[in-house]
Structures are given as C-alpha cells and as structure tokens.
C-alpha cells in the first residue's frame, strides 16, 4: 500500500511538470517572427482613378487622349531596411503581371516569409531584366500575349498602354504606347546594329511600413498614368505617332518619365 501511494504521488508530480512545461512552451514567441506583404495595384490620372475609354484627359503637350487598357510586368520586388539590408520577394514567382481588364491581377500576396520590423522603402524592376526576359517562358494567356517580336529582341513587352488621341486633323487616332527591348538601326527598319535593354528600377523612397508577426501588410501601388506623358519629358503624340516599338528615342522619353510614374499609399 505504501509503495502504491508513492507511485501515485510521483505520477501526479510528473503530470504537473508536463503541464507546466506545456504552458511555458505555448507562450514562447518564435525566434524570427515573420509576416506577409500584399500589393494592390491602382491606376490614376490627375490624382483620381482612371476612367477608361473616356476622351477626358489632356497632357502637357495639349493632346486630348483616352486610355483603353494597360498591361505590364513588374519583377524583383525588393524591401529595404534602414541598416542597408534588403529582401527580394521571389518565393513562388518573381515576375508579376498586371492587366486592367483582369481583376484577379489587381493584387498579389507574396508567398515569402518576411522578417518582422520596419522597412524604409520598396523597389522593383519595371519590365523584366535581360537575364529573365526569355521568349516562350509564358505558354498561356494573358502573359503569352505580351510577347515581343523576335526580330526586335524577343522576350516580352514590359508594358502595353493602348489608347487614342485627337490628332492634328482633329480625328481620333490609336496609339500603342508599348515598352520593351529597343533597337539601334544601321538602316531602318530591318538592319539592327544593337539592342537596348529598356527595363528600369523604380525606387519608392521615404516609404516607411512595418511587417508584423503573423499578419499581412497591404500596400497600394499607384501608377499615375498621366506622368508617362508629362514628367520630366513633355510627350507629344503628334510628334511621336501611334506606334513606338521600333523608335528607341520615343521609348527613351517614356522610360525617363517612368521613373516618376509610381507612388504608394499604406492602407
């Protein structure tokens, strides 16, 4: 009987120890807490949501214009900390397609586990860099429809911004404001001497946001469409015409303006 009582006491002590240990473990925070990031894409003209198919806009060159659709790629989204460290968000995929006609592309939650804490800015490549911009890597639409002709450098468009403007004959004329690999010509249009990689890095400075443990932080990334035509170059559709795929000078104007196109909002 004495031994049986001792056994019961020992068992109670063991169970209490296990229970206490479990309580302790449940309160321990993970050593490296992580969260997620979501980007939602919006498109503005003159600080307001764009109205598509409406000849309601005028650029600094005096062109009345409308926009039908916008399709583009961004890649290598990177988060920067104050200590100089950075995190490239490339788990699952590192190239993101946005299409104003396809609602599902208007937001993306990155798969990456991101270290918690404060971040001071976000950057990304507009388009796709030459190491990744390989023909036929997208086999299904809509991304596959973004192909850039092999003769002009191959790979994929960085952007298709399609619309119309009122030309010098006071008639609506289509424009295909398309960005991708440029060309330098010996003799236009079929003697190419070199190709120009027109992708560029967009930096969003003074952009402070916080990643919290087990939470998703949402950032609204805004394309200010009017700035493609206004800042710093005054882009005139009457001068450049409706199709710029083989006009590196026109695309150069666009990529310089593109540095100022994006802004953000913390939701």
Explain briefly what this protein structure is.
Helices cover 15% and strands 39% of the residues. The protein is mainly beta and 267 residues long. The strands form 4 sheets. Strands 3, 4, 5, 6, 10, 11, 12 and 15 form an 8-stranded antiparallel β-sheet that branches. Strands 1, 2, 7, 8, 17 and 18 form a 6-stranded mixed β-sheet that branches.
Instruction: Using the CA coordinates, give the radius of gyration.
Output: 26 Å
Q: What is the H/E order?
A: HEEEEEEEEEEEEEEEEEHHE
Whole-number mean pLDDT: 89
**How many alpha or pi helices?**
3
Class by alpha and beta content: mainly beta
* Assembly type: single chain
Q: The biggest beta sheet, please?
A: 8 strands, antiparallel
Give the end-to-end Cα distance, rounded to a whole number of Å. Answer: 69 Å
Poorly predicted residue ranges: 4-27
User: How large a portion of the residues is in β-strands, by DSSP E?
Assistant: 35-45%
Number of domains: 2
Helix content: 10-25%
Shape: globular
* Record field, number of beta strands: 18
Explained architecture:
By secondary structure, this protein is mainly beta. It folds into two domains: 30 residues; 231 residues, no CATH class. It contains three helices and 18 strands. Strands 3, 4, 5, 6, 10, 11, 12 and 15 form an eight-stranded antiparallel β-sheet that branches. Strands 1, 2, 7, 8, 17 and 18 form a six-stranded mixed β-sheet that branches. The chain is globular, with a radius of gyration of 26 Å.
